[in-house]
Design brief:
The chain is built from 14 helices and 2 strands, in the order αααααααββααααααα. By secondary structure, it is mainly α. A two-stranded antiparallel sheet has the order 1-2. The C terminus is likely disordered.
Length: 348
């Protein structure tokens, strides 16, 4: 008869992402409670303000740029790279999309297509500068992509503030684009930008799951040196990934300008913080495209629900930003800072 005791049964472990969300919700509720509010009322207002039938169009409208900027961060992150230059790339795309219909002749539908494609091209090419700096000169892309945002934002600000400013206003902005070059609306605040971004998201997921390039990118994220030994051209891959990431950022800028703002306004694309919310959503999913898309939509619901919470309960909407930060911080602590292979610089 054996003296060995049967192994103790372990309780099933909660997956990291749902656990991080649960921790964020609990800690956020405690903050509301300490400040004298009612956590149940606050969260009920967030849910109703984001998912109720009357509020859903606003959530979807907010999700379009946020999911787009989530993909901007998630595509490089899938391969262990970080693109922090989304702000500059988005601004370039927005300015290009505003100038083309203002200064080029042609039918409205053609100008819409040209404006979107040229915006994506310009932003994609600008993003490859960071890849070129790392592959050719060893400049960490993490740093160069962030620093490259500043000249992009500054130059675009100068262009709309002086040579191409709408002189009929006192603001740094272009003239209004013609009605014929604005994105067609679907319902309420929604326009065809939702369909365009949905198509892009589907293409990214299909690329990641079913193509050789997607497999090679995942391999690089696991071990860049091994991927290089396996025949992956790391320098070429980094350049292509950064072009795709920057192109999507340019698409986001173009969709906002052509679909809602109808002109390029200095600072208007940056004030909502799409880039940094998108980066947090991509980190939440670990760079996995489908998870990143869902995380971006989740953060969009948080942010639109935050407005309703502030309106209905007088609790500041900054609570939703606190929730996002707590969730990401918990995941970082759980997985460890270096656990994803981010920052590898072997590009041979």
């Amino acid at each position: 008869m054996s003296d060995l005791a049967p192994p103790a049964r372990r309780l099933p472990r909660i997956p990291p992402v749902p656990l991080a969300i649960l921790v964020g919700v609990v800690l956020g509720g405690l903050l509301v409670l300490v400040s004298g509010g009612n956590p149940i009322e606050a969260y009920a207002a967030i849910v109703a303000g984001s998912l109720a039938w009357s509020s859903l169009p606003n959530t979807l409208n907010w999700a379009v740029p946020l999911v787009g900027m989530t993909l901007v961060a998630a595509i490089p992150l899938r391969g262990g790279m970080i693109n922090l230059g989304g702000d500059g790339q988005m601004v370039i795309g927005g300015l290009v999309a505003a100038l083309i219909p203002l200064y080029l002749p042609g039918p409205g539908w053609l100008l819409i297509i040209v404006a979107i494609l040229v915006a994506m091209l310009a932003s994609g090419l600008y993003a490859t500068i960071a890849a070129w700096g790392e592959t050719r000169h060893g400049i960490p892309m993490l740093i160069s992509s962030l620093l490259l945002s500043y000249p992009a934002i500054g130059i675009c600000s100068y262009i709309v503030g002086f040579p191409l400013r709408d002189v009929t206003t006192g603001l740094a902005q272009t003239a209004m684009i013609p009605d014929a070059v604005r994105l067609p609306t679907i319902s309420g605040p929604l326009n065809v930008g939702l369909l365009i971004m949905a198509a892009v998201a589907i293409l990214v997921v299909l690329f990641d799951r079913f193509t050789v390039g997607g497999y090679e990118l995942r391999m690089r994220g696991l071990n860049a040196r091994f991927a290089g030994y396996g025949g992956v051209g790391l320098a070429r891959q980094m350049t292509a990934v950064m072009f795709a990431s920057g192109a999507i950022a340019g698409l986001v800028g173009a969709l906002i300008v052509l679909g809602s703002q109808f002109r390029f306004q200095d600072g208007a694309l940056l004030s909502p913080g799409y880039t940094w919310s998108g980066l947090m959503a991509a980190l939440l999913a670990g760079g996995e495209p489908l998870g990143a898309i869902l995380a971006g939509a989740f953060f969009a619901a948080l942010q639109t629900g935050g407005f309703a919470m502030q309106r209905e309960t007088a609790i500041p909407r900054v609570l939703t930003m606190v929730l996002q930060s707590i969730i990401i911080l918990f995941l970082a602590i759980r997985h460890g800072v270096g656990g994803t292979g981010i920052g590898r610089r072997d590009t041979r």
